Amino acid sequence: MGRLRVAVLISGRGSNLQALIAACGDSAFPAEIVFVVSSRPEAPGLSFARAAEIPCVAITDRDRRSFAAQADPLLREQRVELICLAGFMRLLETGFVEAWSDRIINIHPSLLPSFRGLKAQRQALVAGVRFTGCTVHFVRPEVDCGPIIGQAVVPVHPGDDEAQLSDRILGVEHRLYPMALRLIAEGRVRIVGERVEIEGWRAPQLTALNPQDNPGEPFASHRS
Ligand code: GRF
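^ thats the input. predicted complex w/ 5-O-phosphono-beta-D-ribofuranosylamine below
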């Protein structure tokens, strides 16, 4: 079986695109990035696509319907099987999401369903949560909704500002997104109802407290 043909949609920096390109650089990885679409021609992330010689295009139309009308035929022409949104700052037309049903995934910098929408890291700081993180999920027409594939958790440190917390989350985004893509490409991810089942899923045997009761022992082993 060939590798899963993936398109990545970006709008800016493209560090998640870079992480996905790096993962796909291993010929044993079960997915390949065949196409990159940016909503901004000047997006710095496009340089990663160009460096990796991945065909890329900028579609700048702000109207959802005309964005979809331009993107859809190009994605089909490239025989794309899965779309990864990675810092893509446009809302997708409902018809487009439905046409690509269960074949679009997104990464969001919070533990969904908390802190949907813009500035999720700032929302977490304002709410005073002690842990936050990121989520990879299947895309539904409502923003930042859809069956959850995987999540990664980071602690909030006292005195964190938005940039520090965002950097900490970004570090785990770059691990989680390639991992979620690999699980999908291996055919191990199924949507049952509106929840995801993963074949061979193992959860970590760890729990964490924040604040810590014993700073020398950040994680308690937890077996239930
Ligand atoms: C990431 O924090 C991602 O979770 C969010 O937008 C940001 C994109 O960063 N959806 P990058 O462009 O991948 O560096």
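Residues 10, 12-16, 45, 86-87, 107-109, 134, 170, 173 surround 5-O-phosphono-beta-D-ribofuranosylamine (CB under 6 Å).
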